[in-house]
Amino acid sequence: MTIGGRRRVPQAASRHPLAKRYARFTTRRRWWIIGGWLVGLGLLLVAPPVATGGNELASIIPLDSPAVASELRSVAEFGYPLSSRTAVIQRDPEGLSPYVQAESVLDAVALDQRGGTDYPLLGALPLTNTLRLGGTSGETNTAVLTYLFMDPTSSFARQQEAAGRYIAAHLERPQDHVVGVAGSIPARAQQASLVAEYLPRLELLTVLAILLLVGVTFRSVLAPVIALLASGLSFVATTHLSETVGGLLGVAAPAELEPLLVALLLGVVTDYTIFYLTALRTRLPEHDDWRDAVTEAVAADTPIVLAAGITVAAGTAALLAANSPFFRGFGPAMALAVVVGLAVSVTLVPALLAILGPRVLWPGMRIRAPSAPSPQASTGLRRMRPSPQQPLVRLLRGRRTAWASLLLCVGVLGLAAIPVVRLDLGVGFTSSLPDSNPVSRASAAAGMAFAPGITSPTTILLEKPGVTSDVGALATFQSLIGQAKGVAAVIGPAQNFTLKAQNIVLARSGNAARMLVVFDHDPLDAVAIDDLTALRTQLPQMAARSGLSGARVSLGGDTALAEGLVSSTGGDLGRIAVAGILVNLLLLVFFLRALVAPLFLLASSVLALTASLGMMVLVFMVLGHHEGVTFYVPFAAAVLLVSLGSDYNIFGVGRVWEEARHLPLRAAVLKAVPESSRAITAAGMTLAVSFGMLAIIPLTPFRELAFAMTCGILIDAFLVRSLLVPALLLVVGPRSGWPGRALTRSTSLAPAALVGFRASVPDAPPLPVPSLPSPPGLRRAPPVGPVTGRLAGGLTLGVVVGGALGVVLARWRRHRRRR
Question: What is the pTM of this model?
Answer without folding.
Answer: 0.81
